[in-house]
Amino acid sequence: MLKQDVREIRQLIARHKRHDLMFAACGVLALMVGVLTFAALFFGMVVDGLPRLNLDFFSNFPSRRPENAGILSAWVGTSLVMVVTAVAAIPLGVSAAVYLEEYAPKNWMTDIIEINVTNLAGVPSIVYGLLALGLFVYQFGFGQSILSAGLTLSLLILPIVIVATRESIRAIPASIREGAYAVGATKWQTTVDHILPYSAPGIMTGIIIGMARAIGETAPIITIGALTFIAFLPPAPVQADFPFVSFEWLTSAFTVMPIQMFNWTSRPEAAFHENAAAAGLVLVVMTLSMNGIAIMIRYRLRKNIKW
Fold first, then answer.
1. Helix, strand or coil for residue 203?
2. CA 93, CA 158: separation in Å to the nearest integer?
3. Average pLDDT, the chain
4. How many Å separate Cα 154 from the centre of its chain?
5. Who has greater pLDDT, 290 or 60?
6. What pTM does this model have?
7. What DSSP state is assigned to residue 46?
8. For domain 53-304, which architecture applies?
9. Please, is 238 exposed, middle or buried when counting C-beta atoms within 10 Å of its C-beta (0-12, 13-18, 19+)?
10. How confident is the model at residue 307 (pLDDT cuts 50, 70, 90)?
11. What is the pLDDT averaged over residues 269-280?
12. CB atoms < 10 A from the CB of 126, how many?
């Protein structure tokens, strides 16, 4: 009887191991589908677009002649829009998450806010574009400008930043708070000196995800009136004359990399498609560089944390 029980237990363990192996194989297969798809697309962009990458491609404006066309206005516009997006979304998103998690009373109103914030993360981007068109462009009078675009994208990624920040704060052990309160720290001191530093790596992850989504968005930017062909640059943020800093660029017309790519892919000439592939390669490199910087900051923050 004992030998039969041992045999059944061994068979059960072996069957569970087979199930684990099958699940691991399915997981690897699902992972490779995404990785190989991205690798194939990226390889195609490299093959088609790499010959077009030169200094003239980055320093020339768009042109009706594909051999003379460049992405100067597109990459400058993308960079400026991302600056406005980061400045508007990151402080607001982190502050809202800290308030909801540490300060807000737990009642029905807070529950409604939490549900709406979570649901807003899945709203289609075109809805944000329509909202921004009525709010920023017409109601506030910002017009079809870099400021409107940056604020639109900040609304788009705000729920992502809030949700990721709240989850990072929730992951902090309660002993951290209890230890801070035990030595006489206030809630503000506990939040600033302990909660935010310990949750900073997770917050950076949410910011990375949000900014990576924003840099490739097209629908809300088109909705608020981004130009598909632009042959001038916004005024420089830094000037030689006093006060040395100018904000005129915030009200300037603009275009961004995804819209420039869409403009080129809609043309029948194969040379424009090569330009679009080169622009896509630049956009991927910009995204990976931004993510790499954020990951490096996150790694340094984790390295300096002492539990």
1. helix
2. 6
3. 84
4. 10
5. 60
6. 0.83
7. H
8. Orthogonal Bundle (1.10)
9. exposed
10. low
11. 87
12. 14
